[in-house]
């Protein structure tokens, strides 16, 4: 005989809508003046995480601000679950 928790997990999977997001990170501007490398990290749950490469900030062409150019693409997957109200 199956447990109620197992049945609920199966029902959640049936009601799930899955999404795949493709994110392209170009430039962060303006950025505070710094000489330290900058990386962006993300995490979803205990096992799904990632980070961009570390990038050094550069002076903008006008010289009035700092620019961080990543030019990286990463994918994030997620699921939305429909919950039936009682």
Indicate the proportion of strand residues: over 45%
What's the β-strand tally? 5
Distance between the termini: 25 Å
Summarize model confidence as the mean pLDDT: 81
Helix tally equals: 1
From the spread of the alpha carbons, the general shape counts as elongated
Quick take:
It is built from one helix and five strands, in the order H-E-E-E-E-E.
Structure description:
The protein has 86 residues and is mainly β. It contains one helix and five strands. The protein has one domain (4-81). The protein has one helix spanning 4-14; strands spanning 16-31, 41-44, 48-51, 58-59, 66-81. The strands form two sheets. Strands 1-5-4 form a three-stranded antiparallel beta sheet. Strand 4 (58-59) and strand 5 form a beta hairpin.
List keywords for this structure.
single chain; 86 residues; mainly beta; 1 helix; 13% helix; elongated
Record the SSE blueprint.
Elements: H1 4-14, E1 16-31, E2 41-44, E3 48-51, E4 58-59, E5 66-81
Antiparallel strand pairs: 1-5, 2-3, 4-5
